[in-house]
From TrEMBL:
This is Right handed beta helix domain-containing protein. Gene3D superfamilies: Single-stranded right-handed beta-helix, Pectin lyase-like (2.160.20.10). Transmembrane segments: none annotated. Residues 159-294 form the Right handed beta helix domain. InterPro entries: Beta_helix, PbH1, Pectin_lyas_fold, Pectin_lyase_fold/virulence. The keyword Signal applies. The keyword Zinc does not apply. Residues 1-19 form the signal peptide. Keywords: Signal. Pfam families: Beta_helix. It comes from the Bacteria.
Length: 367
């Protein structure tokens, strides 16, 4: 009898938790709904236009795995056309996860906002093992104080307006990717991704974030606008890449990235009061761009403080190069004197020492 009881308990532990509410197949919520307890999504659940889904603290939402085309990606998800309010607390977060006993990233689809113009809000949520943790297409959303981990893509936006505040984005294949979007990231930590942030045709405001130890770029934007202040961009392959865009960077620490700390191509850039040091190849790579470079700490980078790879000359303001000796500063700059096809770099009287720290932001949430 004792052995039989142990066997039953063992088998029960291998099964998904028994759900208090279950949705199977393709279903639609046609009226305002409140969830609590354990919810199982065994299909695609749509929240109709004009309908509100509210999820209470401590709720667990699980998704079964279904792969119709054999690509290894789960397809069961929540499809929001109305409004989602997932309001957990620090003590009782809301969990969105896989129903599998041994899940992997991509085991379910997404929290999917489609043509949802209401102000969708996730607060104190944990989102894990999804294909796209939070996906917005023609939508609006705020995500606060939440954890996104082990998803294929933590966030994906298109034609949307999204604000992400005080969130941790940890060990996803990619962190955030977006196009034609307006995105605000504040006091977030993004680590352990291939690409931390990728965007095109978008406006990104980045304030007080820590973006560290991502395997490719920390921030990669094309034909976009970037405003970055008081961020720490540390230990990635590359720091910030901006192509055919506009950027204002002030008071950031861009330190210890394996290749370039910053790379600007065919862009308009204001680069003031940043610490851009200890990057493997160069602090700044400048290609056919224009703008202001002044008040920065450019000391201690691996090969060059500044590389001018464009055909035009570059006038640089007063910065700290790690030295005030002109011969030494010349060695830290790659320009026409090294490569005849590129422009010259002319610099103002260098700063006599490291500039004072730029603006600081509220400390990040503890891990």
């Amino acid at each position: 009898m004792t052995r039989l009881l142990c066997l039953v308990l063992l088998l029960a532990s291998c099964l998904p938790a028994i759900a208090e509410t279950r949705y199977s197949g393709e279903q639609t919520l046609w009226q305002d709904t409140v969830w609590s307890g354990d919810i199982l999504i065994d299909g695609i659940l749509t929240v109709a236009p004009g309908v509100r889904l509210e999820i209470r603290p401590g709720t667990t939402v699980r998704f079964t795995f279904f792969d119709s085309n054999g690509d290894g990606i789960g397809e069961h998800e929540i499809f929001i056309q109305g409004r989602l309010l997932a309001l957990g607390t620090a003590e009782q977060p809301i969990l969105f996860t896989s129903a599998e006993t041994a899940p992997r990233p991509g085991a379910w689809g997404a929290i999917n906002m489609m043509a949802s113009e209401d102000d969708n809000l996730l607060r104190h949520c944990v989102v894990e093992y999804a294909y796209r943790g939070f996906h917005a297409h023609f939508g609006k959303g705020r995500i606060e104080d939440s954890l996104f981990r082990r998803n294929l893509r933590a966030f994906q936006f298109q034609d949307s307006t999204v604000r992400v505040s005080r969130c941790r984005v940890l060990d996803n294949f990619n962190g955030l990717q977006f196009r034609d979007a307006t995105v605000v990231l504040e006091q977030c930590r993004i680590t352990g991704s291939q690409w931390a942030i990728r965007g095109i045709y978008s406006d990104l405001t980045l304030t007080g974030c820590l973006i560290e130890n991502n395997r490719i770029n920390a921030v990669s934007l094309r034909e976009s606008t970037l405003v970055a202040e008081a961020n720490r961009i540390i230990g990635n392959r590359r720091g910030i890449f901006l192509q055919r865009g506009k950027g204002t960077l002030r008071g950031n620490r861009i330190v210890g990235n394996a290749e370039h700390g910053t790379f600007f191509e065919d862009s308009e850039v204001i680069l003031r009061d940043n610490r851009i040091t200890a990057n493997g190849r160069a602090g700044i790579r400048w290609l056919d761009s224009q703008g202001v470079i002044a008040g920065n700490d450019l000391s201690g980078n691996g090969e060059y403080a500044l590389m001018n790879d464009g055909s035009g000359d570059l006038q640089v303001g007063s910065n700290w190069w790690g030295s005030v000796d002109e011969k030494r500063i010349d060695q830290l700059i790659r320009d026409r004197r090294d490569r005849p096809e590129t422009g010259l770099v002319r610099y103002a009287v260098p700063l006599s020492g490291k500039p004072s720290a730029g603006p600081t932001a509220t400390p990040l949430l503890p891990e």
